[in-house]
Amino acid sequence: MQTLWSAWMQYLPLLLRGTAMTVELTAAALVVGVLFGFLLALGRLSRVPALDTLATGYVEVVRAIPVLIILFITYYGFAELGLVLSGITAAVVSLGGFYATQYGEIFRGAILGIDRGQTEAATALGLTSAQTMRRVVLPQAFFTILPPATNQLSNLIKDTSLVFTISVADLMYQANSALSVNFLPMDMLLEAGVIYFIFYLIIAKVLGRWEVSVQRRRN
Amino acid sequence: MSNDVVIRADRLSKRFGTLTVFEDVSIEVKKREVVAIIGPSGAGKSTFIRCINYLHTFNQGTLEILGHTIVGGHNHPSKDVLQDIRTRVGMVFQTFNLFPHLNVIENITLAPVEVKKVPRAQANARAMELLEMVGLPHKAEMYPKRLSGGEQQRVAICRALAMEPEVMLFDEPTSMLDPELVGEVLAAIRRLAKEGMTMVLVTHEMQFAKEVADTVVIMADHGVVEKGPAREVLESPRTERAQSFLHRVLNPEEVPDPLEQEVLPIGGRR
Known about the structure:
The complex is a heterodimer of chains A (219) and B (270).
Chain A: H1 2-45, H2 49-62, H3 67-80, H4 87-112, H5 116-124, H6 129-159, H7 171-182, H8 185-218
Helix pairs in contact in A: 1-2, 1-4, 1-7, 1-8, 2-4, 3-4, 4-6, 5-6, 6-8, 7-8
Chain B: E1 5-16, E2 19-30, E3 34-38, H1 45-52, E4 60-65, E5 68-71, H2 79-88, E6 89-92, H3 104-114, H4 120-133, H5 149-161, E7 167-171, H6 179-194, E8 198-202, H7 206-212, E9 215-220, E10 223-229, H8 230-235, H9 240-250, H10 258-261
Parallel strand pairs in B: 3-8, 3-9, 6-7, 7-8
Antiparallel strand pairs in B: 1-2, 1-4, 4-5, 9-10
Protein backbone atom coordinates (compact mmCIF):
# COMPACT_ATOMS: atom_id res chain seq x y z
CA MET A 1 0.00 0.00 0.00
CA GLN A 2 2.76 2.34 1.01
CA THR A 3 4.71 1.66 -2.17
CA LEU A 4 1.66 2.11 -4.36
CA TRP A 5 0.87 5.57 -3.06
CA SER A 6 4.46 6.62 -3.16
CA ALA A 7 4.63 5.69 -6.86
CA TRP A 8 1.43 7.68 -7.55
CA MET A 9 2.82 10.66 -5.64
CA GLN A 10 6.26 10.38 -7.18
CA TYR A 11 4.98 10.57 -10.74
CA LEU A 12 2.15 13.02 -10.08
CA PRO A 13 4.19 16.14 -11.02
CA LEU A 14 5.16 14.54 -14.33
CA LEU A 15 1.58 13.55 -15.09
CA LEU A 16 0.34 17.00 -14.13
CA ARG A 17 2.80 18.52 -16.58
CA GLY A 18 1.24 16.25 -19.19
CA THR A 19 -2.21 17.30 -17.99
CA ALA A 20 -1.36 20.94 -18.72
CA MET A 21 -0.65 19.96 -22.31
CA THR A 22 -3.88 17.95 -22.49
CA VAL A 23 -5.90 20.94 -21.23
CA GLU A 24 -4.23 23.27 -23.71
CA LEU A 25 -4.80 20.88 -26.60
CA THR A 26 -8.42 20.40 -25.61
CA ALA A 27 -9.01 24.15 -25.40
CA ALA A 28 -7.31 24.91 -28.71
CA ALA A 29 -9.03 22.03 -30.55
CA LEU A 30 -12.36 23.05 -29.03
CA VAL A 31 -12.01 26.63 -30.27
CA VAL A 32 -11.04 25.44 -33.74
CA GLY A 33 -13.78 22.82 -33.75
CA VAL A 34 -16.53 25.19 -32.61
CA LEU A 35 -15.59 28.05 -34.93
CA PHE A 36 -14.98 25.86 -37.97
CA GLY A 37 -18.03 23.78 -37.07
CA PHE A 38 -20.18 26.91 -37.04
CA LEU A 39 -18.89 27.80 -40.52
CA LEU A 40 -19.67 24.26 -41.70
CA ALA A 41 -23.21 24.57 -40.32
CA LEU A 42 -23.69 27.91 -42.09
CA GLY A 43 -22.28 26.33 -45.26
CA ARG A 44 -24.70 23.43 -45.12
CA LEU A 45 -27.61 25.80 -44.47
CA SER A 46 -26.49 28.20 -47.20
CA ARG A 47 -28.61 28.84 -50.25
CA VAL A 48 -25.43 28.98 -52.33
CA PRO A 49 -25.19 25.43 -53.77
CA ALA A 50 -21.37 25.44 -53.96
CA LEU A 51 -21.01 26.24 -50.23
CA ASP A 52 -23.56 23.60 -49.30
CA THR A 53 -21.84 20.96 -51.42
CA LEU A 54 -18.40 21.85 -50.09
CA ALA A 55 -19.47 21.78 -46.43
CA THR A 56 -21.55 18.62 -46.83
CA GLY A 57 -18.70 16.84 -48.62
CA TYR A 58 -16.23 17.80 -45.91
CA VAL A 59 -18.52 16.68 -43.08
CA GLU A 60 -19.49 13.37 -44.67
CA VAL A 61 -15.90 12.41 -45.50
CA VAL A 62 -14.02 13.63 -42.43
CA ARG A 63 -16.42 12.30 -39.81
CA ALA A 64 -16.17 8.82 -41.33
CA ILE A 65 -12.39 8.63 -40.93
CA PRO A 66 -10.76 7.54 -37.65
CA VAL A 67 -9.19 10.45 -35.78
CA LEU A 68 -5.88 8.59 -35.64
CA ILE A 69 -5.69 8.44 -39.44
CA ILE A 70 -6.51 12.14 -39.69
CA LEU A 71 -3.80 12.87 -37.13
CA PHE A 72 -1.20 10.81 -39.02
CA ILE A 73 -2.16 12.34 -42.36
CA THR A 74 -1.81 15.83 -40.89
CA TYR A 75 1.51 15.06 -39.27
CA TYR A 76 3.26 12.56 -41.57
CA GLY A 77 1.26 12.88 -44.80
CA PHE A 78 1.43 16.67 -45.02
CA ALA A 79 5.17 16.55 -44.23
CA GLU A 80 5.69 14.25 -47.18
CA LEU A 81 4.02 16.91 -49.35
CA GLY A 82 6.37 19.53 -47.93
CA LEU A 83 4.05 20.98 -45.27
CA VAL A 84 5.90 20.24 -42.06
CA LEU A 85 3.78 20.91 -38.97
CA SER A 86 4.89 20.71 -35.35
CA GLY A 87 3.29 17.93 -33.33
CA ILE A 88 1.12 20.38 -31.41
CA THR A 89 -0.06 22.19 -34.53
CA ALA A 90 -0.85 18.90 -36.25
CA ALA A 91 -2.77 17.79 -33.14
CA VAL A 92 -4.87 20.97 -32.97
CA VAL A 93 -5.56 20.98 -36.72
CA SER A 94 -6.58 17.34 -36.88
CA LEU A 95 -8.64 17.25 -33.67
CA GLY A 96 -10.22 20.62 -34.47
CA GLY A 97 -10.88 19.58 -38.06
CA PHE A 98 -12.51 16.34 -36.97
CA TYR A 99 -14.58 17.78 -34.13
CA ALA A 100 -15.76 20.59 -36.43
CA THR A 101 -17.82 17.95 -38.22
CA GLN A 102 -19.42 16.92 -34.93
CA TYR A 103 -20.08 20.46 -33.74
CA GLY A 104 -21.21 21.50 -37.22
CA GLU A 105 -23.96 18.88 -37.21
CA ILE A 106 -25.03 19.81 -33.68
CA PHE A 107 -25.29 23.50 -34.67
CA ARG A 108 -27.08 22.72 -37.90
CA GLY A 109 -29.67 20.57 -36.17
CA ALA A 110 -30.26 23.19 -33.48
CA ILE A 111 -30.61 26.02 -36.00
CA LEU A 112 -33.04 23.99 -38.12
CA GLY A 113 -35.02 23.26 -34.97
CA ILE A 114 -35.88 26.92 -34.42
CA ASP A 115 -39.43 27.69 -35.54
CA ARG A 116 -39.58 29.48 -38.88
CA GLY A 117 -41.93 32.05 -37.35
CA GLN A 118 -38.99 33.32 -35.27
CA THR A 119 -36.84 34.19 -38.27
CA GLU A 120 -39.87 35.56 -40.11
CA ALA A 121 -40.69 37.86 -37.20
CA ALA A 122 -37.09 39.06 -37.01
CA THR A 123 -36.91 39.60 -40.77
CA ALA A 124 -40.20 41.49 -40.77
CA LEU A 125 -38.78 43.80 -38.09
CA GLY A 126 -35.89 44.68 -40.39
CA LEU A 127 -33.14 42.67 -38.71
CA THR A 128 -30.42 41.51 -41.09
CA SER A 129 -29.78 37.79 -41.35
CA ALA A 130 -26.63 38.18 -39.22
CA GLN A 131 -28.58 40.05 -36.52
CA THR A 132 -31.33 37.45 -36.70
CA MET A 133 -28.78 34.68 -36.22
CA ARG A 134 -27.00 36.43 -33.35
CA ARG A 135 -29.94 37.84 -31.42
CA VAL A 136 -32.81 35.45 -32.19
CA VAL A 137 -31.70 32.04 -33.50
CA LEU A 138 -28.50 31.23 -31.61
CA PRO A 139 -29.71 32.21 -28.12
CA GLN A 140 -32.67 29.88 -28.61
CA ALA A 141 -30.53 27.12 -30.07
CA PHE A 142 -28.33 27.24 -26.94
CA PHE A 143 -30.36 24.66 -25.00
CA THR A 144 -30.45 22.25 -27.89
CA ILE A 145 -26.72 22.66 -28.41
CA LEU A 146 -25.35 22.44 -24.89
CA PRO A 147 -26.04 18.77 -23.92
CA PRO A 148 -24.69 17.16 -27.12
CA ALA A 149 -21.84 19.68 -27.21
CA THR A 150 -20.82 18.69 -23.67
CA ASN A 151 -20.96 15.09 -24.77
CA GLN A 152 -18.66 15.75 -27.72
CA LEU A 153 -16.30 17.65 -25.44
CA SER A 154 -15.85 14.52 -23.33
CA ASN A 155 -14.98 12.62 -26.52
CA LEU A 156 -12.54 15.35 -27.51
CA ILE A 157 -10.78 15.22 -24.14
CA LYS A 158 -10.30 11.47 -24.51
CA ASP A 159 -9.20 11.71 -28.15
CA THR A 160 -6.42 14.15 -27.25
CA SER A 161 -4.66 11.09 -25.80
CA LEU A 162 -4.01 9.94 -29.39
CA VAL A 163 -1.37 12.65 -29.77
CA PHE A 164 1.12 10.64 -27.75
CA THR A 165 1.58 8.63 -30.96
CA ILE A 166 3.23 11.66 -32.57
CA SER A 167 5.25 12.42 -29.41
CA VAL A 168 3.30 15.39 -28.12
CA ALA A 169 3.96 15.36 -24.38
CA ASP A 170 0.39 15.14 -23.10
CA LEU A 171 -0.96 13.22 -20.11
CA MET A 172 -1.03 9.89 -21.95
CA TYR A 173 2.51 10.42 -23.22
CA GLN A 174 3.82 11.12 -19.72
CA ALA A 175 2.02 8.12 -18.25
CA ASN A 176 3.48 5.95 -20.98
CA SER A 177 7.00 7.23 -20.45
CA ALA A 178 6.67 6.76 -16.67
CA LEU A 179 5.50 3.17 -16.94
CA SER A 180 8.33 2.30 -19.33
CA VAL A 181 10.75 3.37 -16.60
CA ASN A 182 9.07 2.07 -13.43
CA PHE A 183 7.28 -0.97 -14.91
CA LEU A 184 4.06 -0.12 -13.09
CA PRO A 185 1.61 0.06 -16.03
CA MET A 186 -1.50 -0.53 -13.88
CA ASP A 187 -0.66 2.30 -11.51
CA MET A 188 0.43 4.81 -14.12
CA LEU A 189 -2.50 4.17 -16.45
CA LEU A 190 -5.02 4.22 -13.60
CA GLU A 191 -3.53 7.46 -12.30
CA ALA A 192 -3.79 9.02 -15.76
CA GLY A 193 -7.35 7.71 -16.07
CA VAL A 194 -8.32 9.30 -12.76
CA ILE A 195 -6.89 12.64 -13.91
CA TYR A 196 -8.83 12.45 -17.23
CA PHE A 197 -11.97 11.69 -15.23
CA ILE A 198 -11.47 14.64 -12.85
CA PHE A 199 -10.82 16.97 -15.79
CA TYR A 200 -14.06 15.87 -17.45
CA LEU A 201 -16.00 16.09 -14.18
CA ILE A 202 -14.97 19.71 -13.63
CA ILE A 203 -15.97 20.72 -17.16
CA ALA A 204 -19.29 18.87 -17.02
CA LYS A 205 -20.15 20.52 -13.69
CA VAL A 206 -19.30 24.01 -14.93
CA LEU A 207 -21.31 23.60 -18.13
CA GLY A 208 -24.21 22.10 -16.21
CA ARG A 209 -24.29 25.09 -13.82
CA TRP A 210 -24.19 27.45 -16.77
CA GLU A 211 -27.17 25.74 -18.40
CA VAL A 212 -29.20 25.82 -15.19
CA SER A 213 -28.45 29.49 -14.55
CA VAL A 214 -29.48 30.53 -18.06
CA GLN A 215 -32.62 28.42 -17.83
CA ARG A 216 -33.55 29.94 -14.49
CA ARG A 217 -33.10 33.47 -15.85
CA ARG A 218 -35.63 32.70 -18.58
CA ASN A 219 -38.35 31.23 -16.40
CA MET B 1 -48.06 56.48 -58.01
CA SER B 2 -50.06 59.31 -56.54
CA ASN B 3 -48.74 60.50 -53.20
CA ASP B 4 -51.74 59.14 -51.49
CA VAL B 5 -51.21 55.51 -52.45
CA VAL B 6 -48.88 53.63 -50.10
CA ILE B 7 -49.16 50.14 -51.57
CA ARG B 8 -50.17 49.15 -55.06
CA ALA B 9 -50.04 45.49 -56.04
CA ASP B 10 -50.62 45.06 -59.74
CA ARG B 11 -51.59 41.57 -60.95
CA LEU B 12 -49.36 39.72 -58.46
CA SER B 13 -49.07 35.97 -58.98
CA LYS B 14 -47.41 33.38 -56.79
CA ARG B 15 -46.72 29.76 -57.65
CA PHE B 16 -44.82 26.95 -55.97
CA GLY B 17 -43.83 24.80 -58.91
CA THR B 18 -47.08 23.90 -60.61
CA LEU B 19 -49.19 24.84 -57.60
CA THR B 20 -50.81 28.25 -57.97
CA VAL B 21 -51.18 30.02 -54.63
CA PHE B 22 -52.79 33.15 -56.07
CA GLU B 23 -53.04 34.76 -59.44
CA ASP B 24 -53.50 38.31 -60.72
CA VAL B 25 -54.19 39.87 -57.35
CA SER B 26 -54.37 43.65 -57.50
CA ILE B 27 -55.03 45.90 -54.56
CA GLU B 28 -54.37 49.50 -53.71
CA VAL B 29 -53.93 50.88 -50.21
CA LYS B 30 -54.07 54.60 -49.60
CA LYS B 31 -52.59 56.45 -46.69
CA ARG B 32 -54.74 56.03 -43.54
CA GLU B 33 -56.85 53.39 -45.27
CA VAL B 34 -57.73 50.08 -43.62
CA VAL B 35 -58.04 47.20 -46.07
CA ALA B 36 -59.40 43.88 -44.84
CA ILE B 37 -58.77 40.72 -46.83
CA ILE B 38 -61.25 37.94 -46.13
CA GLY B 39 -62.02 34.64 -47.76
CA PRO B 40 -61.94 30.89 -47.30
CA SER B 41 -58.81 29.03 -46.20
CA GLY B 42 -56.39 28.18 -48.96
CA ALA B 43 -57.29 31.23 -50.99
CA GLY B 44 -53.76 32.60 -50.68
CA LYS B 45 -54.54 35.49 -48.31
CA SER B 46 -51.68 34.87 -45.89
CA THR B 47 -49.19 34.25 -48.66
CA PHE B 48 -50.30 37.42 -50.37
CA ILE B 49 -49.91 39.63 -47.29
CA ARG B 50 -46.42 38.17 -46.77
CA CYS B 51 -45.50 39.27 -50.28
CA ILE B 52 -46.16 42.89 -49.30
CA ASN B 53 -43.06 42.99 -47.06
CA TYR B 54 -41.34 40.38 -49.24
CA LEU B 55 -41.26 37.59 -46.67
CA HIS B 56 -42.42 35.65 -49.70
CA THR B 57 -41.29 36.27 -53.24
CA PHE B 58 -43.80 36.41 -56.06
CA ASN B 59 -43.50 35.21 -59.64
CA GLN B 60 -45.31 37.87 -61.61
CA GLY B 61 -46.71 41.33 -61.29
CA THR B 62 -45.51 44.61 -59.86
CA LEU B 63 -45.55 45.74 -56.26
CA GLU B 64 -45.16 49.43 -55.53
CA ILE B 65 -44.66 50.14 -51.86
CA LEU B 66 -43.50 53.26 -50.05
CA GLY B 67 -41.78 54.58 -53.16
CA HIS B 68 -40.09 51.29 -54.11
CA THR B 69 -41.04 49.17 -57.09
CA ILE B 70 -40.54 45.40 -57.04
CA VAL B 71 -41.13 43.39 -60.18
CA GLY B 72 -41.92 39.72 -59.69
CA GLY B 73 -39.68 37.12 -61.26
CA HIS B 74 -36.01 36.57 -60.89
CA ASN B 75 -34.64 39.94 -59.84
CA HIS B 76 -34.63 40.19 -56.08
CA PRO B 77 -34.74 43.71 -54.70
CA SER B 78 -31.50 44.86 -53.08
CA LYS B 79 -30.92 44.36 -49.36
CA ASP B 80 -31.17 48.12 -48.79
CA VAL B 81 -34.59 48.29 -50.42
CA LEU B 82 -35.88 45.34 -48.40
CA GLN B 83 -34.46 46.77 -45.21
CA ASP B 84 -36.15 50.11 -45.91
CA ILE B 85 -39.50 48.43 -46.61
CA ARG B 86 -39.34 46.18 -43.57
CA THR B 87 -38.38 48.92 -41.14
CA ARG B 88 -41.32 51.02 -42.38
CA VAL B 89 -43.88 48.17 -42.52
CA GLY B 90 -44.85 46.43 -39.29
CA MET B 91 -46.23 42.91 -39.22
CA VAL B 92 -48.29 40.92 -36.73
CA PHE B 93 -48.54 37.15 -37.15
CA GLN B 94 -51.22 34.58 -36.49
CA THR B 95 -48.89 32.70 -34.12
CA PHE B 96 -47.54 35.86 -32.38
CA ASN B 97 -43.93 34.75 -32.84
CA LEU B 98 -42.60 36.58 -29.80
CA PHE B 99 -38.98 35.78 -29.00
CA PRO B 100 -39.21 33.34 -26.06
CA HIS B 101 -35.69 34.04 -24.78
CA LEU B 102 -36.39 37.77 -24.33
CA ASN B 103 -38.79 39.36 -21.87
CA VAL B 104 -41.61 41.63 -23.00
CA ILE B 105 -39.65 44.86 -23.00
CA GLU B 106 -36.64 43.23 -24.69
CA ASN B 107 -38.94 41.83 -27.36
CA ILE B 108 -40.23 45.32 -28.07
CA THR B 109 -36.87 47.12 -27.99
CA LEU B 110 -34.78 44.56 -29.91
CA ALA B 111 -35.45 45.95 -33.39
CA PRO B 112 -35.31 49.68 -32.55
CA VAL B 113 -31.98 49.21 -30.75
CA GLU B 114 -30.41 46.79 -33.27
CA VAL B 115 -31.76 48.18 -36.52
CA LYS B 116 -32.45 51.86 -35.87
CA LYS B 117 -29.73 52.31 -33.21
CA VAL B 118 -32.19 54.02 -30.87
CA PRO B 119 -30.53 54.60 -27.45
CA ARG B 120 -31.56 51.91 -24.98
CA ALA B 121 -33.19 54.30 -22.49
CA GLN B 122 -35.27 55.98 -25.18
CA ALA B 123 -36.33 52.60 -26.62
CA ASN B 124 -37.37 51.41 -23.16
CA ALA B 125 -39.41 54.56 -22.54
CA ARG B 126 -41.19 54.18 -25.88
CA ALA B 127 -41.84 50.48 -25.18
CA MET B 128 -43.48 51.39 -21.86
CA GLU B 129 -45.71 53.94 -23.62
CA LEU B 130 -46.80 51.28 -26.09
CA LEU B 131 -47.45 48.78 -23.29
CA GLU B 132 -49.60 51.39 -21.53
CA MET B 133 -51.57 51.79 -24.72
CA VAL B 134 -52.46 48.08 -24.82
CA GLY B 135 -52.92 47.86 -21.04
CA LEU B 136 -49.89 45.70 -20.24
CA PRO B 137 -47.30 47.92 -18.50
CA HIS B 138 -47.20 45.54 -15.52
CA LYS B 139 -46.04 42.67 -17.75
CA ALA B 140 -42.89 44.43 -18.99
CA GLU B 141 -40.45 42.12 -17.20
CA MET B 142 -42.27 38.87 -17.97
CA TYR B 143 -41.26 36.26 -20.47
CA PRO B 144 -43.73 35.37 -23.26
CA LYS B 145 -44.32 31.88 -21.86
CA ARG B 146 -46.07 33.45 -18.86
CA LEU B 147 -48.54 35.47 -20.95
CA SER B 148 -51.93 34.47 -22.34
CA GLY B 149 -52.36 34.37 -26.11
CA GLY B 150 -54.20 37.68 -26.10
CA GLU B 151 -51.43 39.31 -24.07
CA GLN B 152 -48.77 37.85 -26.35
CA GLN B 153 -50.51 39.22 -29.40
CA ARG B 154 -50.84 42.67 -27.83
CA VAL B 155 -47.10 42.61 -27.07
CA ALA B 156 -46.48 41.55 -30.68
CA ILE B 157 -48.44 44.60 -31.82
CA CYS B 158 -46.27 46.80 -29.57
CA ARG B 159 -43.15 45.15 -30.98
CA ALA B 160 -44.19 46.07 -34.51
CA LEU B 161 -45.25 49.59 -33.50
CA ALA B 162 -41.92 50.24 -31.76
CA MET B 163 -40.34 50.64 -35.19
CA GLU B 164 -42.78 53.50 -35.84
CA PRO B 165 -44.06 51.90 -39.04
CA GLU B 166 -46.05 53.73 -41.68
CA VAL B 167 -48.05 50.62 -42.55
CA MET B 168 -49.17 47.68 -40.43
CA LEU B 169 -49.86 44.21 -41.78
CA PHE B 170 -51.98 41.80 -39.73
CA ASP B 171 -52.05 38.15 -40.74
CA GLU B 172 -55.08 36.61 -39.01
CA PRO B 173 -54.14 38.16 -35.67
CA THR B 174 -56.98 36.56 -33.70
CA SER B 175 -57.44 33.13 -35.23
CA MET B 176 -55.17 31.36 -32.73
CA LEU B 177 -56.86 32.93 -29.72
CA ASP B 178 -59.47 31.57 -27.34
CA PRO B 179 -62.77 33.34 -28.05
CA GLU B 180 -62.72 35.34 -24.83
CA LEU B 181 -59.29 36.80 -25.67
CA VAL B 182 -60.17 38.00 -29.17
CA GLY B 183 -61.77 41.21 -27.97
CA GLU B 184 -58.68 42.67 -26.31
CA VAL B 185 -56.61 42.24 -29.47
CA LEU B 186 -59.33 43.68 -31.70
CA ALA B 187 -59.55 46.66 -29.35
CA ALA B 188 -55.86 47.41 -29.88
CA ILE B 189 -56.25 47.17 -33.66
CA ARG B 190 -59.39 49.33 -33.57
CA ARG B 191 -57.50 52.01 -31.70
CA LEU B 192 -54.76 52.01 -34.35
CA ALA B 193 -57.38 52.38 -37.05
CA LYS B 194 -58.86 55.38 -35.23
CA GLU B 195 -55.41 56.95 -34.98
CA GLY B 196 -55.18 56.78 -38.74
CA MET B 197 -52.70 53.94 -39.19
CA THR B 198 -52.57 52.50 -42.70
CA MET B 199 -53.38 48.82 -42.36
CA VAL B 200 -53.84 45.62 -44.31
CA LEU B 201 -55.62 42.96 -42.30
CA VAL B 202 -56.28 39.33 -43.13
CA THR B 203 -59.11 38.25 -40.89
CA HIS B 204 -62.02 35.93 -40.27
CA GLU B 205 -63.79 38.43 -38.03
CA MET B 206 -66.49 39.68 -40.40
CA GLN B 207 -68.16 41.98 -37.91
CA PHE B 208 -64.82 43.58 -37.09
CA ALA B 209 -63.93 43.95 -40.76
CA LYS B 210 -67.23 45.72 -41.37
CA GLU B 211 -66.57 48.03 -38.45
CA VAL B 212 -62.94 49.08 -38.98
CA ALA B 213 -62.17 48.48 -42.65
CA ASP B 214 -62.69 51.05 -45.35
CA THR B 215 -62.20 48.51 -48.09
CA VAL B 216 -62.86 44.79 -48.10
CA VAL B 217 -61.19 42.40 -50.52
CA ILE B 218 -62.61 38.89 -50.81
CA MET B 219 -60.09 36.32 -52.01
CA ALA B 220 -61.23 32.86 -53.05
CA ASP B 221 -60.07 30.24 -55.50
CA HIS B 222 -56.59 31.83 -55.76
CA GLY B 223 -57.78 35.28 -56.75
CA VAL B 224 -59.78 38.35 -55.86
CA VAL B 225 -63.48 37.68 -56.35
CA GLU B 226 -64.75 40.99 -55.11
CA LYS B 227 -63.49 44.22 -53.61
CA GLY B 228 -64.98 47.55 -52.68
CA PRO B 229 -66.20 49.65 -49.77
CA ALA B 230 -66.51 47.43 -46.70
CA ARG B 231 -70.22 47.78 -46.02
CA GLU B 232 -71.16 47.38 -49.67
CA VAL B 233 -69.11 44.22 -50.19
CA LEU B 234 -70.16 42.59 -46.95
CA GLU B 235 -73.84 43.49 -47.07
CA SER B 236 -74.63 43.23 -50.76
CA PRO B 237 -71.94 41.31 -52.60
CA ARG B 238 -72.35 41.24 -56.36
CA THR B 239 -70.53 38.07 -57.38
CA GLU B 240 -71.97 34.67 -56.72
CA ARG B 241 -68.70 33.36 -55.19
CA ALA B 242 -68.63 36.19 -52.68
CA GLN B 243 -72.31 35.66 -51.89
CA SER B 244 -71.86 31.95 -51.21
CA PHE B 245 -68.75 32.55 -49.08
CA LEU B 246 -70.42 35.23 -46.97
CA HIS B 247 -73.58 33.22 -46.62
CA ARG B 248 -71.63 30.26 -45.25
CA VAL B 249 -69.60 32.40 -42.87
CA LEU B 250 -72.55 34.35 -41.53
CA ASN B 251 -74.90 31.36 -41.31
CA PRO B 252 -72.72 28.41 -40.35
CA GLU B 253 -75.72 26.52 -38.96
CA GLU B 254 -77.31 26.46 -42.39
CA VAL B 255 -74.42 24.66 -44.08
CA PRO B 256 -75.81 21.18 -44.78
CA ASP B 257 -74.26 18.03 -43.38
CA PRO B 258 -72.51 16.34 -46.29
CA LEU B 259 -73.31 12.91 -44.83
CA GLU B 260 -77.01 13.58 -45.19
CA GLN B 261 -76.66 14.74 -48.78
CA GLU B 262 -74.39 12.21 -50.40
CA VAL B 263 -75.15 8.60 -51.11
CA LEU B 264 -72.29 6.78 -49.44
CA PRO B 265 -70.61 3.83 -51.10
CA ILE B 266 -70.59 0.62 -49.08
CA GLY B 267 -67.68 0.56 -46.67
CA GLY B 268 -67.79 4.08 -45.26
CA ARG B 269 -67.40 7.69 -46.23
CA ARG B 270 -66.46 8.45 -49.84
